[in-house]
Structures are given as structure tokens and as C-alpha cells.
Amino acid sequence: MDRNEDEAPILRVEGYSKYFNLHEQGKIIPSSYNVNLEVYAGKLTALIGQTGAGKSTVLKGIFRSYLPSSGRLLYRTASQHLIDLALADEHQILELRRTEISFVTQFLHALPRQATEDVVAQPLIQRGMCKAKALEIVHKTLAAMNLPERLWSISPATFSGGERQRVNLARGLVSRPRLLLLDEPTASLDPKTTECVVRLIENLKAKGVAMLAIFHHPDLVERMADNVVQLDPPVGIENVFKEIA
User: Fold this and answer.
1) Which strands sit side by side in the sheet containing 101-104, from one edge to the other?
2) Residue 94: inside a domain, yes or no?
3) pLDDT tens per residue across span 47-81
4) Other CB atoms within 10 A of residue 182 CB
5) What is the pTM of this model?
6) Which residues, at least 6 apart from 164, have a Cβ–Cβ distance to it below 8 Å?
7) Distance (Å, whole) CA 36 – CA 68
8) How much is the average pLDDT of 173-181?
């Protein structure tokens, strides 16, 4: 039976592979190999697998930090257009990042001396929201992350790892994207803050956000994932050569 439009995946990954060509050394390093998965609105798909299986590489490929070596990354936009992210031009990718796709990495990148509240508000302001309204939403989000109010007006550059990750998460969650990519979002957080993050993620799921996530702790996968995709380590270099020959 065919799925109706509402049941169609927001994202379908078909045969995604990524290798890195070290030209100066004459080597090809495989990272992800033949990955297939689907992500649905209001559902969380978890990527699992041992270190080196290419989990983060898959997320970076979808966000187009990396160009894939092969495969298709079929994204269904809010207007129901199907775009292969592997082939989309830079303008399309930047527009999707601004309006529909958000990526919470393990590291916070922010301008020096930029206030934390402004860092988190940036996605909302880029979408046209007035700063006052954006900051109102940001303050509620930062409070939910257990980030002390005294830190909101200063740069996160001097924060601890856990505090920076809370800012990073707040910026990724605040705009309620259609597709949210999460790379070990709770790895640097204490148990209390982890619970806050879990509640925020569950709230976004209830509002229809589609999520693809890597979690550090297996118990979070069991607790939060609607679907689980196991990634195996990539094939040997000799097979990658055959594939790309």
C-alpha cells in the first residue's frame, strides 16, 4: 500500500557513501558506506554503531558540510518539493538551513564577544522575527536548559564545555526546524540538564519535528528513538576503489 503524503518521509537516504581522498598521500579513506534510512515528521531516528562507522559523517552529508561520494539524500520541503541534497546548489542549501534544517553539533561556533542570547536568537531573526520577540523565546529556552540568567548577556567563549553545549542546543532547538540533526547532544551535560534536553526534544517531536540523532548513551536511544538504524564500519579500501572506478 502506498503511503499518503502526510506519511511520506521528510528525509530518505539511499545508498549514501562518503570517502576522503588524500591526494598528497595517494590514499582513499572510507567513512560511511551504503547507508539507507528514512526520517518522518514527529519521529526520531537514531543512528547507532561503533566508533568509525561514519555516523557523524552521515549527518554532515545531509547538512551538506560534506559532499557525498555516492547515493541520494532526498529531502521533502515544506512545499512538498523533493530535493536531492547531494545535488542541490549552494543557494538552496543555505535557504534550507535558514528555514527548515537545523544541525546541533558537538561544538559551538559563535562570533567572539557575541552575547549568548544573540547567538541563540540568530536563527529566529534570520527568519524575520523581531528581536524583542526572538529574545522572549530565547530566554524561555535558556531557562529550560538550566543556563543561569547572569550568563545570557555575555559571550559563551569563556563557558565550560557543558554550558557551551547548552547554548548550542538552545540555538538548534529554538527555531523548531522541520528536520533536526543531533550529534551526541547530551554528551557534555549533567543528568539534570540531560533530562531538560530530553523533555525539549520530546516536545518538538510532539509538534511534528523530524529528527535524526546520535546519542552517547544507549539508554537514551531506547527511551527516545522511534526507529534505530545500525551502521556498520565501511568496507575496505579495495572495495571502495571498485565502487568509484
Assistant:
1) 101-104, 179-183, 210-214, 44-48, 227-230
2) yes
3) 998 887 889 999 999 999 988 889 999 999 999 99
4) 25
5) 0.85
6) 107, 108, 156, 188
7) 13
8) 91
